[in-house]
Amino acid sequence: MVHHSTAAQVRLFLLICVFCARISTSSSARSSSSRSSASSSSSSSSSRSRSSSSGGWVGVSLGLDASSQPIDPVRAVELIKARGFSAVKLFRPDGPTFAALAGSGLEVVTAVPNDRLAEFAGNSGAALGWVDANIAPYTDKCNITGISVGNEVMGQREGANDALYSLVPAMEALHGALEARKLHGRVKVTSPQDMSFLAASYPPSAGEVQPAIRDEMAKLLAFLDRTGSHAVLNCYPFFAYLSAPQQISRDLVFFKGGSGGYSDGELFYGSMLEGMIDAAIAAFEKLGFPNVPITLGEVGWPSAGADVASLADAAEFNGALIDYLTSGRGTPKRPGVAVRAYVFEMFDEDQKDTGPGEFEKAWGVNYEDGSEKYPLNLTPGSTPTPTPTPTPTPTPTPTPTPTPSPSCDTAAESVWNAMEWACGEGQVPCGDLSAGGGCWEGQSSTTQAAVQASVAMNRYYQMASQEPGRCEFGGAAKLVSSVPAVLAGCGLESSNGNWCVAACLG
Question: Would you call 152 a catalytic residue per the annotation?
Fold first, then answer.
């Protein structure tokens, strides 16, 4: 492989924008089970960019409509769990699949297509009706955590902007519908975008949003920041490499760094994917949103159908991708902030439009019949699912065990870690905790932190349906049957008469 100069790297990242957007999204028109409907994210966190560094979070996309031999939902869920994935992304609501996912422990995200955005933007009743039909009936048993609204609406391609001005109003309407059903704490609203929203992407620090969509992107980021959701990026190094395999370093594409890497100031980039993510982060910073969390809504590699799409290529890329995600190392711009991602996709789909290439049928990590193509460095439960402790291997207990309560001074670090986890990996909305005038005002700094942490931890516990073990947080929290006086004005919710609070306050 020929390695190239900085000038060539400029061309490389321009190719990323063009091919990850135009090729992948032109192929998205091919079926409602993949990128044509709406990609998604398990949304989480407040405006904090901090996340657990114990390892990334790996989900997978599940197509429903482009296979001549669709796999039964119950078996599909079994295979997803056997592969070790933590979450599943659907491109439309589906009752039988929701039923199969009930009690599985998998997070679930579903989607709203672009052609519904104008309807929801102008009619809050329509949004409420959609939530009542597709979300509310299933949340008692199925762990639905997100709704992806539209797909790549910000993209600069033919027809992409038809829904541009309806996007954020539709998201607001759906968020309002979730609020009306008291589901907004656990079900977040987001909208996935391809990389064509960037006007510049190399070096990553030069990342900038296209001028024509800058105002709408700022509105989208403001919504995500306010509601504690994630920005979602659909990133495909495959399409850049497909376009120019002789000009682009394979080492850079396949996470090998070395001579294929490059520097941006003091930051070194050893993979194309990290550069793509950080270019988006830099662009968001320039719009005034430096801390919006990022989830990769789609990323993967096909196993056939192109010179650079072999079984070995797919195994190498997806294996390296999973190693990167589970390492928790983050990106050069956000070191230690684990990247969350959905691998595209679980099964091959033989009825996809192959206009872009035969590879469109071969994105699955499993074949169409359900058999595995190649090993993945995931074992069931090996990727961190949301658990009530910031440690990677929590041990839930069926009932709270009384222990001496530490003082909030000595427990300050564990309390902070618990709140950080709840507001990050735990997917709790925490934007209001940084505002003034809260119930913690007038307390000492350590008590104030414990009060704020209690609000976050209790939200997580209630969102988790008060499951046993969901109020541990490494010993920083405890269950109480009456709200401590210091928390009386905080409006802590409970549906079972128990509250999860900082142990030092109990």
Answer: yes
